[in-house]
Design brief:
Elements (H helix, E strand, L loop, with lengths): L13 H19 L26 E5 L9 H11 L5 H17 L4 H15 L4 H16 L5 H12 L3 E9 H10 L4 E5 L1 E4 L2 E6 L7 H14 L7 E4 L5 H4 L4 E5 L3 H9 L3 E3 L20 H16 L1
Parallel strand pairs: 1-2, 1-6, 2-3, 6-7, 7-8
Antiparallel strand pairs: 4-5
């Protein structure tokens, strides 16, 4: 799917690639957005009502994995693709090994990263966008619908009820993110954009995965295009990787935060919400480590499922 792979050789600086990925995500999101204008909900901390009713210069940006949804969307998508025999056994084993290596090493070796990107992109190359969109709709019903955090969903609804737009911002493929946003009644989604020609994936990305600084660039680009005041906007995430995005807005929230984000948020008096069971609850599913192991995580899980069935 759009973001199931990563960039080919690095010809631009990291900042330039992040800007390109962010701008591409913003453009794709605006094309697929819905116009939702509905009523507001008060804040639960005894502060002035937030979000502010009728403030059209404000919007909300939600990370997806472990913030809106339990686990990683691409993990669930990978399960669905494997069920439909989308992958060959050889490809599954290769991705499983790459994901295992990355998680054990804990570093982003350039050569290994390049191999992961090219391998993942090879899966979607030549497939039609419409084909994977159709499959994505089915997979949402099978694996994702029951994994939405009710608490986070309520926060998003509060913004919608206040007449504000609500966007998902994720390293997942923009097609997958758009399906989830539509099913939840949100405005749209910013996600990783893969190049397609005449509706067929070319096996290349536009910019880089929408991760870390690229998310902030996407939000910045969308805010400029939509005439939003970022100081009045809100952002929600579970990961310290999204600190650039959270720091961009006037109302940052740490949702189900990892240890680094929890510490960072407390030091800055950011609002925290934790909808997991128990204070030390582990994340559900396989997190998208640095945005690189996304599809590999899904295929690794598929291998495990296959082994259990045997």
């Amino acid at each position: 799917m759009a973001a199931l792979g990563w960039l080919t050789p690095r010809r631009r600086s990291a900042t330039a690639r992040s800007v390109l990925a962010g701008e591409a995500a913003a453009e794709a999101a605006r094309k697929t957005s819905q116009e939702l204008v509905q009523p507001a909900a008060p804040d639960d901390r005894g502060e002035p009502p937030f979000p502010v009713q009728g403030d059209v210069t404000a919007a909300a940006f939600f990370d997806l994995d472990n913030t809106v949804m339990q686990g990683a969307a691409i993990f669930h998508f990978g399960r669905g693709l494997y069920k439909r025999k989308f992958f060959q056994r050889q490809e599954l084993m290769r991705f499983a090994w790459q994901q295992t290596w990355f998680r054990l090493a804990g570093v982003e070796d350039p050569d290994h990263m390049q191999d992961v990107r090219e391998s993942a992109l090879s899966i979607v190359k030549g497939h039609r966008v419409s084909e994977l969109m159709s499959i994505g709709e089915e997979i949402y019903d099978e694996y994702m619908a029951d994994r939405i955090w009710p608490g986070t969903r309520a926060l998003a609804q509060a913004h919608l009820d206040a007449g504000q737009k609500v966007w998902l911002v994720t390293a997942a493929p923009v097609e997958t993110a758009t399906i989830i946003a539509r099913r939840l009644g949100l405005t749209g989604a910013l996600g990783t954009v893969a190049e397609s020609v005449d509706g067929v994936y070319t096996g290349k990305l536009v910019g880089e995965p929408l991760h870390g600084p690229a998310k902030a660039e996407a939000v910045r680009a969308l805010a400029a295009a939509e005439g939003l005041d970022l100081a009045r906007c809100a952002a929600y995430s579970d990961s310290h990787n999204d600190i650039p995005m959270l720091s961009l807005v006037g109302h940052p929230y740490a949702i189900n935060p990892d240890t680094k984000l929890r510490r960072y948020a407390r030091a800055r008096d950011w609002r925290l919400r934790d909808y997991r069971t128990g204070r030390k609850a582990a994340k559900v599913g396989i997190p998208a480590a640095a945005g690189v192991g996304a599809i590999a995580g899904g295929t690794a899980a598929a291998v495990a499922i296959h082994r259990r069935r045997r």
